[in-house]
Amino acid sequence: MIKSKSSRVGDYIIAFICLLLMLACLLPMLNILARSLSSAQAIIRNEVFLWPKGWNIEAYRFVLTDSKYTWSLIWTAILTVICTIVSMTMTILCAFPLTYDKLKGRRFFNTLIILTMYFSAGTIPTYLLLKDLGMINKPIVLIVPNCLSVFYMIIMRSYFYGIPESLRESAEIDGAGPIRILTSIYLPLSKPVLATLSLFYAVGRWNGFSDALMFLGNNRKYYPIQLLLYNIIKSITSIEVTTQEGFATPGLNETIQAATVMFATVPILMVYPWLQKYFISGATLGAIRE
Question: How far apart are CA 202 and CA 90, in angstroms?
Answer without folding.
Answer: 14
